[in-house]
Design goal:
A alpha+beta, B mainly alpha, C alpha/beta, B: mainly alpha, MetI-like fold, 13 helices, C: alpha/beta, D-Maltodextrin-Binding Protein, domain 2, nine-stranded mixed β-sheet
Amino acid sequence: MSLDASIRLTLGPLDLDMDLTVEEGEVVALLGPNGAGKTTLLRAIAGLVPFRSGHVRLDGKVLEDPATRQYVPTERRPIGFVFQDYLLFPHLTVQENVAFGLHARGVPRQVADERATRWLDRVGLKGYARARPAELSGGQRQRVALARALAPDPRLLLLDEPLAALDATTRAEVRRDLKRHLESFEGIRLVVTHDPLEAVALADRLVVMENGHLVQTGTAGDVTEHPRSQYVADLVGVNLLRGEAGDGSVKLTSGQVVAAAGAESGDVFVVVHPRAVSVHRTHPEGSPRNVWSGRASSIELMGNRVRVRIDAAIPLVAEVTPAALKELNIVEGGEVWLSFKATDVGVYPA
Amino acid sequence: MRREGVPIIVVLPAAIGAAFFIVPLVGLIVRSPWGDALTALSAPETLEALKLSLIASLSATAVAVVLGVPLAWVYARVAFPGRALLRALTTLPMVLPPVVGGIALLLAFGRRGLLGAWLASTFGITFPFTTVGVVMAETFVAMPFLILTVEAGLRSMDRRYEEAARALGASRWRVFIRVTLPLIGPSLFAGAVLCWARALGEFGATITFAGNFPGVTQTMPLAVYLLLESNQEASFILSLVLLLVSLVVLVGLKDRWLGFGST
Amino acid sequence: MRNPLVLIVVAVVLAACGSTSSSATPLSGNVSVFAAASLTAAFNALGTDFQGANSGVTMKFNFAGTPTLVTQIEQGAPADVFASADSANKNKLKGDGFTAGTPKVFARNKLEIVVAPGNPNGITGLADLAKPGVIYITEAPTVPAGKYALQALKLAGVTVTPKSLEADVKSVVSKIELGEADAGIVYKTDVTAAGSKVSGVPIPDADNVVATYPIVAVKATTNAAAADAFIAYVLSALGQAKLQSFGFLSAS
């Protein structure tokens, strides 16, 4: 029982080529920057966007396959779709919205209304049955959208940036509720998001996409500890380098050599946490093998830490305390030296 | 804080433009013999013309809705070769002199017309000199208004609502009836009202295609035209009635008449 | 004895003055003639002839149902000459004070039944208009032709309901030409004017109505000289001959 999708299409500047499998029981988050093709992939799975080649199979049944000209129209797929803007029908009441899918599938009126009412209860909107979407807050509308998608008991639940339209405070609270509902849902769940926090909070497995292609997939832990693209590295907030490993050091693609304990052989990624990068005003003495000179190009205060971006032979981000910054008199544009230990570096195959 | 006034370069032409429309209406009001108004309005020929006008214009609007909405849908949603040409053809009656429209209808549906001849010889059906002919003439000139307005409404609505409905399992028909139509409701309403107002005032195509006979084909505009020759003042009063009806309709539509804006 | 040369010169000059047209200066400018629809072909021809003889004059014609012309003139439309299809309309215009000078009858017309070429429905007289299956149309009773048609039918003792009351004779003829209607009552001149596109069925004199056409100058004319000249031309032998060539009866 699973979703098996393989989609190849071109839509404007986007060239999408993705293979995706989602098993029953796991929540998968499609994570990636804007323009990566995540929403397009979701819509293709729903049957709203035609694709050139590939297939969409749900529980073994083919929903779409251009090669054999098979196409099950969207309205006959057992799916529930929560759109980014919710798209609640403005001319219907909340109750009518939630019951819409049931009426559409031929559920007798009374049964449909009962189920709709129960769902409104479940999402905590009892008493709002007669309200219009325009009268609700963002968080409330999100819940109606979810109830509406779930009421017809779909096999596959697709959520497109479910929290993006909410402000920060509402988002946290709604995220908790959403996680709860996702957990109690028995079908296959696929969430699209550009927010890593959301992805990590809601999903068991992350699928990272960039420019229409798969970049990496794994559990939250896997992905954050072993980023395989600049995008993920930026999300997580670590420095990511790549090169050829050989006997305790890695020759980067830029030509620089980084001393890395545990680097044996092959094409590898090198992760250096900003915490591990020390900043000096002069050439440091001592054990660290990795020392470069550079210029502090930008300084960002983040809570009780400071992130210093350093333009060096290897551009890196260092994390220091505000006190250290002041003491060392590090300013933007100023000359600095950076260092990190070979043992403070993560290496893993690319 | 000083509010900016409207520049004179805008006010002057606008005022002249407004006067161009207001003065004739005022002229009609001032010149109408109000004392005889009631007699003129309650004369049997007037009532007959009024009744016929209402029946015919409402029927024409109904036909326009039934045929025009699907046409508007096709124009807004389906790309096909020749669409621009077809759309131009069905909009033509808006710019064609109505009499020309009447002649065209005769050549198509008259007793010797392209289709009319066949209908007459096979089924014995003729349209000239009948109330159905009046409805046809009015539909011909008024339907483009409805098509244009509804098409604009369909183009400006957010089509993702239709996707949302499909994702919920709604068949295409259900999507149209339960989602699309309600969302373009205002445009449809405005289009229908404009269509009705145009049909109500139609003269040239009616008299040419359907003819003029009290109770059958003599609508209000035709009655006014002929009254102009025999009882001028009565014709002023009837003209005023027609003008005021149209005015009320248009004022009622307010700024919705362009058909933009779903809820 | 006075110089006989002077006398001769004076006589010649006087004779010359007498033989030119009524004013010493040639006619010029526009002449707007508002004429009944049934006069269309005839007056267009008269206008061409008159223009030919008076190169400075431009004839402008406005043909419509006579009552419409009366309304237009009374509402201020610029007309110089008014040619009516009956006396009633001329009297109305005169009574309302819009005419100048004495109206004169310049032509008469008789009614005729107009049918499709070859008379496919076999209409032989007014009684056949009531035959089942025959689509009969006529002018609205406010138009002189319409009024006369009703009179003729009454004289013949025929009752028939028309399918349409058209605004003028030309519309009736058009619909017969187009094949939309089978028969109508118009003037003899209208049947003549339509040539081979229609056929005519005469109405016996006993049932027929003679329409008299008066012509008169409009009071508000801006070109009295030319207006009067045109009226005189219409009434002249040349004008009368032209009218009769179109099927009109003589003025008396």
